[in-house]
Amino acid sequence: MDGNVDVLNDKPRSEPRLPLWQISRLRMATDGHGVTALVGSYGCPLDCKYCINPESHGKEGRYSLVTPEELLKKVKIDNLYYLATGGGIMFGGGEPLLYADFIAEFRRIAPKEWNFYAETSLCVPKKALTAAAGAIDHFYVDVKDTDAAIFERYTGVNAAASVFRNLGALLALTGPERITVRLPLIPGFNTAEDVLRSKERLTEAGVVNFDCFNYRV
Length: 217
Known about the structure:
Elements (H helix, E strand, L loop, with lengths): L17 E11 L6 E7 L22 E3 L1 H8 L3 H7 L2 E5 L7 H10 L5 E6 L6 H7 L4 E5 L5 H8 L4 H15 L4 E7 L6 H14 L4 E5 L3
Parallel strand pairs: 2-4, 4-5, 5-6, 6-7, 7-8
Antiparallel strand pairs: 1-2, 1-3
């Protein structure tokens, strides 16, 4: 173990570091277009009841602090696959946009032909959006639900309003084509009618790409 979650609040370093807890190579049809590597960052502000990566956050966990150059060395092994398929890197987590400055620096030094994706809750400071918008080709935003009570009950955090505001800001920065909003039907937390209501509200806000699905628990 290289540390614990306290490092997420460390003082700014001269070079950004990412708390990396996993790299999943050669992924297809799950994380953007073509062959991708899923780069999982450690740390998340939410405590979702059915989190698929519980090992990616908490008071203690296993991760390694890496620089952009160190991460590039780890993922460029599959460069030919990225180039042949139009793939690249998916930043996940945890919450990857907590490290938007790292992602922006990584994008600067990585091959220009790679595509970059991020899966995010948008439960991040608004200032992170500008750096991320300049580095990510397509965002997958996991909204959960636009109802504040449902959101808080499922995530443990009263942040539905700020997520909605951040989504509006991101839409303004990138345009709707670069964003896919994921709306899950979560057993015991929301209903099909809730999902439809969220979709209608988000459509009015300018979202055009949706991924509606059911959680299997």
